[in-house]
Amino acid sequence: MTYVEEVFLIIFPQGNKDLTEGEKAALIVDNFNVPTIGEELALKCLCDIAVRTHFIDPVEGERVVRHSLELITELLPLDVNHEYHVAEASAVLYMFEEGKTYEEVTNAFKRRSY
User: Global pTM?
Assistant: First the structure.
């Protein structure tokens, strides 16, 4: 199960198997709620949306990816004026895949050592 699918089922417990992953991603960012999802899973999901999710409609895909990158700023400690990029979302996913904890990931961004 992808992070997108996992978070989709948390936000929408009834699920909907007919939706594409891109459609689920759009619903997630439009109904995003960190307390419901949890910080670590929320960050993983947003990064997964920005890096790995495929969208049928490129305009909608760009909107969803931009929104996910904006939401990441609420979870990672960077300068308010910093604009996240897909490469940074990819770095976050890589750190989690390497076994880093949420705290280690956020500390790396505080030190800018990612």
Answer: 0.89
